[in-house]
Amino acid sequence: MLDAFAKAKQAEIAALEALAAAGDFPAPWAGERPSFVESLLRRGPGAIIAEYKRASPSRGDIAPELRAADVAMAYARGGAAAVSVLTQEEHFRGRLEFLDEAAGCGLPLLRKDFILHPLQVRRTAATPASAVLLIARMVPVERLALLVPLCRELGLTAVTEIFDEADLHRARQAGARVIQVNNRDLDTLAVNLDVSRAMVARRIPGEIWISASGITRHAEVAEMAAKGYDAVLVGTSLMEGGDPAGALERLRSGEGET
Protein backbone atom coordinates (compact mmCIF):
# COMPACT_ATOMS: atom_id res chain seq x y z
CA MET A 1 0.00 0.00 0.00
CA LEU A 2 2.83 2.43 0.74
CA ASP A 3 3.94 2.29 -2.89
CA ALA A 4 0.39 3.04 -4.03
CA PHE A 5 0.14 5.94 -1.57
CA ALA A 6 3.44 7.37 -2.82
CA LYS A 7 2.39 7.02 -6.46
CA ALA A 8 -0.84 8.88 -5.73
CA LYS A 9 1.14 11.93 -4.57
CA GLN A 10 3.24 12.40 -7.70
CA ALA A 11 0.69 14.59 -9.51
CA GLU A 12 0.40 16.82 -6.43
CA ILE A 13 4.18 17.20 -6.22
CA ALA A 14 4.41 18.03 -9.93
CA ALA A 15 1.72 20.70 -9.53
CA LEU A 16 3.59 22.24 -6.58
CA GLU A 17 6.81 22.28 -8.58
CA ALA A 18 5.02 24.10 -11.38
CA LEU A 19 3.65 26.68 -8.92
CA ALA A 20 7.10 27.25 -7.46
CA ALA A 21 8.69 27.62 -10.91
CA ALA A 22 6.04 30.17 -11.89
CA GLY A 23 6.50 32.17 -8.69
CA ASP A 24 2.89 31.51 -7.68
CA PHE A 25 3.52 29.43 -4.57
CA PRO A 26 1.15 30.30 -1.69
CA ALA A 27 2.59 32.47 1.07
CA PRO A 28 2.98 31.05 4.58
CA TRP A 29 -0.03 31.24 6.89
CA ALA A 30 0.02 34.61 8.67
CA GLY A 31 -2.21 33.61 11.56
CA GLU A 32 -1.39 32.05 14.90
CA ARG A 33 -0.64 28.34 15.08
CA PRO A 34 -1.57 26.81 18.47
CA SER A 35 1.29 24.69 19.82
CA PHE A 36 0.71 21.03 19.03
CA VAL A 37 3.16 19.75 21.64
CA GLU A 38 2.01 22.10 24.40
CA SER A 39 -1.58 21.07 23.86
CA LEU A 40 -0.72 17.37 24.14
CA LEU A 41 1.31 17.90 27.30
CA ARG A 42 -1.41 20.04 28.83
CA ARG A 43 -4.03 17.31 28.27
CA GLY A 44 -1.83 14.25 28.73
CA PRO A 45 -0.94 11.61 29.52
CA GLY A 46 -4.00 10.27 27.78
CA ALA A 47 -4.47 13.28 25.49
CA ILE A 48 -6.63 12.47 22.48
CA ILE A 49 -5.84 13.62 18.95
CA ALA A 50 -9.26 13.24 17.34
CA GLU A 51 -9.29 12.68 13.61
CA TYR A 52 -11.51 13.97 10.83
CA LYS A 53 -11.54 10.93 8.55
CA ARG A 54 -14.14 10.55 5.81
CA ALA A 55 -12.90 7.27 4.31
CA SER A 56 -10.01 4.82 4.39
CA PRO A 57 -8.62 2.02 2.18
CA SER A 58 -9.52 -0.60 4.81
CA ARG A 59 -13.07 0.60 5.53
CA GLY A 60 -14.19 2.50 2.45
CA ASP A 61 -16.55 5.38 3.21
CA ILE A 62 -16.82 6.14 6.93
CA ALA A 63 -18.67 9.44 7.23
CA PRO A 64 -18.28 11.44 4.00
CA GLU A 65 -21.34 13.56 4.82
CA LEU A 66 -19.82 15.12 7.97
CA ARG A 67 -18.23 18.56 7.50
CA ALA A 68 -14.71 19.30 8.73
CA ALA A 69 -15.77 22.47 10.53
CA ASP A 70 -18.60 20.76 12.41
CA VAL A 71 -16.53 17.75 13.45
CA ALA A 72 -13.57 19.87 14.58
CA MET A 73 -15.82 22.05 16.71
CA ALA A 74 -17.42 18.97 18.25
CA TYR A 75 -13.98 17.59 19.07
CA ALA A 76 -12.97 20.88 20.68
CA ARG A 77 -16.10 20.91 22.83
CA GLY A 78 -15.50 17.26 23.74
CA GLY A 79 -12.02 17.80 25.16
CA ALA A 80 -9.69 16.72 22.35
CA ALA A 81 -6.13 18.03 22.57
CA ALA A 82 -5.73 18.38 18.78
CA VAL A 83 -7.47 17.52 15.54
CA SER A 84 -5.90 15.34 12.86
CA VAL A 85 -7.19 16.17 9.38
CA LEU A 86 -6.77 13.69 6.55
CA THR A 87 -6.03 15.60 3.36
CA GLN A 88 -5.13 12.75 0.99
CA GLU A 89 -7.73 12.65 -1.78
CA GLU A 90 -7.51 9.38 -3.67
CA HIS A 91 -7.68 6.88 -0.81
CA PHE A 92 -9.16 8.92 2.06
CA ARG A 93 -11.49 11.41 0.31
CA GLY A 94 -9.62 14.26 1.95
CA ARG A 95 -8.78 17.76 0.74
CA LEU A 96 -6.20 20.31 1.81
CA GLU A 97 -9.02 22.84 2.23
CA PHE A 98 -10.32 20.84 5.19
CA LEU A 99 -7.53 22.39 7.26
CA ASP A 100 -8.92 25.87 6.62
CA GLU A 101 -12.43 24.68 7.41
CA ALA A 102 -11.37 23.05 10.69
CA ALA A 103 -9.26 25.96 11.93
CA GLY A 104 -12.18 27.67 13.66
CA CYS A 105 -12.15 25.03 16.40
CA GLY A 106 -9.10 26.70 17.97
CA LEU A 107 -7.21 23.43 18.48
CA PRO A 108 -3.85 22.58 16.88
CA LEU A 109 -4.36 20.84 13.54
CA LEU A 110 -2.25 17.95 12.30
CA ARG A 111 -2.10 17.50 8.53
CA LYS A 112 -2.20 13.75 7.95
CA ASP A 113 -1.09 12.84 4.46
CA PHE A 114 1.79 11.23 2.60
CA ILE A 115 4.54 13.86 2.61
CA LEU A 116 7.46 13.03 0.35
CA HIS A 117 8.81 16.40 -0.84
CA PRO A 118 9.86 19.70 0.78
CA LEU A 119 7.29 21.59 -1.31
CA GLN A 120 4.52 19.60 0.39
CA VAL A 121 5.82 20.86 3.73
CA ARG A 122 5.90 24.43 2.38
CA ARG A 123 2.36 24.03 1.10
CA THR A 124 1.28 22.82 4.54
CA ALA A 125 2.85 25.96 6.02
CA ALA A 126 0.44 27.99 3.87
CA THR A 127 -2.48 26.48 5.85
CA PRO A 128 -3.47 26.88 9.53
CA ALA A 129 -1.92 23.49 10.41
CA SER A 130 0.30 23.34 13.47
CA ALA A 131 1.83 19.95 12.66
CA VAL A 132 2.44 17.64 9.72
CA LEU A 133 2.82 13.87 9.56
CA LEU A 134 6.02 12.39 8.14
CA ILE A 135 6.23 8.62 7.66
CA ALA A 136 9.78 7.46 8.32
CA ARG A 137 9.83 4.55 5.91
CA MET A 138 8.33 6.41 2.95
CA VAL A 139 11.40 8.53 2.19
CA PRO A 140 15.18 7.97 2.33
CA VAL A 141 16.68 8.99 5.65
CA GLU A 142 18.57 11.80 3.88
CA ARG A 143 15.26 13.27 2.70
CA LEU A 144 13.69 12.78 6.12
CA ALA A 145 16.63 14.67 7.62
CA LEU A 146 15.70 17.61 5.37
CA LEU A 147 11.97 17.49 6.06
CA VAL A 148 12.12 17.42 9.87
CA PRO A 149 14.15 20.64 10.28
CA LEU A 150 12.22 22.29 7.43
CA CYS A 151 9.03 21.76 9.43
CA ARG A 152 10.66 23.43 12.43
CA GLU A 153 11.89 26.32 10.29
CA LEU A 154 8.35 26.93 9.02
CA GLY A 155 6.75 26.79 12.45
CA LEU A 156 5.32 23.28 12.08
CA THR A 157 5.76 20.31 14.40
CA ALA A 158 7.04 17.25 12.56
CA VAL A 159 5.15 14.17 13.77
CA THR A 160 7.29 11.29 12.56
CA GLU A 161 5.48 7.98 12.22
CA ILE A 162 7.19 4.66 12.82
CA PHE A 163 6.23 0.99 12.72
CA ASP A 164 9.32 -0.72 14.12
CA GLU A 165 12.79 -0.21 15.57
CA ALA A 166 14.37 0.41 12.16
CA ASP A 167 11.92 3.26 11.56
CA LEU A 168 12.66 4.68 15.01
CA HIS A 169 16.37 4.70 14.23
CA ARG A 170 15.71 6.55 10.97
CA ALA A 171 13.46 9.05 12.74
CA ARG A 172 16.11 9.81 15.35
CA GLN A 173 18.80 10.12 12.70
CA ALA A 174 16.61 12.81 11.11
CA GLY A 175 16.27 14.70 14.39
CA ALA A 176 12.63 13.75 15.09
CA ARG A 177 11.36 14.51 18.60
CA VAL A 178 7.65 13.72 18.20
CA ILE A 179 7.24 10.00 17.51
CA GLN A 180 3.97 8.40 16.42
CA VAL A 181 3.77 4.61 16.63
CA ASN A 182 1.28 3.27 14.11
CA ASN A 183 -0.38 0.03 15.15
CA ARG A 184 -1.59 -0.46 11.58
CA ASP A 185 0.81 -2.08 9.13
CA LEU A 186 0.30 0.07 6.02
CA ASP A 187 1.41 -2.80 3.79
CA THR A 188 -1.17 -5.31 5.08
CA LEU A 189 -3.59 -2.89 6.89
CA ALA A 190 -3.65 -5.28 9.89
CA VAL A 191 -3.87 -3.61 13.32
CA ASN A 192 -2.15 -4.82 16.49
CA LEU A 193 -1.85 -2.75 19.68
CA ASP A 194 1.10 -4.93 20.68
CA VAL A 195 3.18 -2.73 18.37
CA SER A 196 2.69 0.23 20.71
CA ARG A 197 3.08 -1.95 23.79
CA ALA A 198 6.48 -3.14 22.60
CA MET A 199 7.85 0.04 21.04
CA VAL A 200 7.32 2.36 24.03
CA ALA A 201 10.20 0.63 25.84
CA ARG A 202 12.49 2.43 23.36
CA ARG A 203 11.31 5.90 24.36
CA ILE A 204 13.99 8.26 25.63
CA PRO A 205 13.64 11.47 27.71
CA GLY A 206 12.73 14.58 25.75
CA GLU A 207 10.59 12.80 23.16
CA ILE A 208 6.81 13.07 22.75
CA TRP A 209 5.16 9.74 21.92
CA ILE A 210 1.77 9.09 20.31
CA SER A 211 0.03 5.75 19.76
CA ALA A 212 -2.15 5.64 16.64
CA SER A 213 -4.66 3.25 15.04
CA GLY A 214 -6.84 0.57 16.56
CA ILE A 215 -7.72 2.40 19.78
CA THR A 216 -11.46 2.19 20.37
CA ARG A 217 -11.98 2.03 24.15
CA HIS A 218 -11.27 4.20 27.19
CA ALA A 219 -9.39 1.29 28.74
CA GLU A 220 -6.96 1.31 25.81
CA VAL A 221 -6.42 5.07 26.12
CA ALA A 222 -5.67 4.59 29.82
CA GLU A 223 -3.36 1.68 29.10
CA MET A 224 -1.31 3.66 26.59
CA ALA A 225 -1.05 6.57 29.03
CA ALA A 226 0.14 4.23 31.78
CA LYS A 227 2.75 2.72 29.47
CA GLY A 228 4.24 6.15 28.72
CA TYR A 229 2.41 7.58 25.72
CA ASP A 230 1.64 11.29 25.87
CA ALA A 231 -1.31 10.95 23.51
CA VAL A 232 -3.32 8.64 21.30
CA LEU A 233 -4.66 9.36 17.82
CA VAL A 234 -8.16 8.04 17.17
CA GLY A 235 -10.04 8.29 13.89
CA THR A 236 -12.33 5.56 12.61
CA SER A 237 -14.02 4.73 15.93
CA LEU A 238 -14.92 8.40 16.42
CA MET A 239 -16.24 8.99 12.91
CA GLU A 240 -18.22 5.80 12.27
CA GLY A 241 -21.80 6.04 13.44
CA GLY A 242 -22.11 9.72 12.52
CA ASP A 243 -21.77 11.06 16.08
CA PRO A 244 -18.13 12.03 16.63
CA ALA A 245 -18.96 14.21 19.65
CA GLY A 246 -20.75 11.38 21.43
CA ALA A 247 -18.07 8.88 20.47
CA LEU A 248 -15.36 11.14 21.88
CA GLU A 249 -17.30 11.60 25.12
CA ARG A 250 -17.64 7.84 25.53
CA LEU A 251 -13.96 7.29 24.72
CA ARG A 252 -12.90 9.80 27.36
CA SER A 253 -15.32 8.60 30.05
CA GLY A 254 -15.49 4.88 29.42
CA GLU A 255 -19.28 5.02 29.65
CA GLY A 256 -20.84 1.77 28.46
CA GLU A 257 -17.60 -0.23 28.52
CA THR A 258 -17.52 -3.61 30.24
TrEMBL record:
<keyword id="KW-0210">Decarboxylase</keyword>
<dbReference type="InterPro" id="IPR001468">
    <property type="entry name" value="Indole-3-GlycerolPSynthase_CS"/>
</dbReference>
<dbReference type="InterPro" id="IPR013785">
    <property type="entry name" value="Aldolase_TIM"/>
</dbReference>
<feature type="domain" description="Indole-3-glycerol phosphate synthase">
    <location>
        <begin position="3"/>
        <end position="250"/>
    </location>
</feature>
<dbReference type="GO" id="GO:0000162">
    <property type="term" value="P:L-tryptophan biosynthetic process"/>
</dbReference>
<dbReference type="Pfam" id="PF00218">
    <property type="entry name" value="IGPS"/>
</dbReference>
<dbReference type="GO" id="GO:0004640">
    <property type="term" value="F:phosphoribosylanthranilate isomerase activity"/>
</dbReference>
<keyword id="KW-0028">Amino-acid biosynthesis</keyword>
<dbReference type="GO" id="GO:0004425">
    <property type="term" value="F:indole-3-glycerol-phosphate synthase activity"/>
</dbReference>
<keyword id="KW-0822">Tryptophan biosynthesis</keyword>
<dbReference type="InterPro" id="IPR045186">
    <property type="entry name" value="Indole-3-glycerol_P_synth"/>
</dbReference>
<keyword id="KW-0057">Aromatic amino acid biosynthesis</keyword>
<dbReference type="InterPro" id="IPR011060">
    <property type="entry name" value="RibuloseP-bd_barrel"/>
</dbReference>
<protein>
    <recommendedName>
        <fullName>indole-3-glycerol-phosphate synthase</fullName>
        <ecNumber>4.1.1.48</ecNumber>
    </recommendedName>
</protein>
<keyword id="KW-0456">Lyase</keyword>
<dbReference type="InterPro" id="IPR013798">
    <property type="entry name" value="Indole-3-glycerol_P_synth_dom"/>
</dbReference>
<comment type="pathway">
    <text>Amino-acid biosynthesis; L-tryptophan biosynthesis; L-tryptophan from chorismate: step 4/5.</text>
</comment>
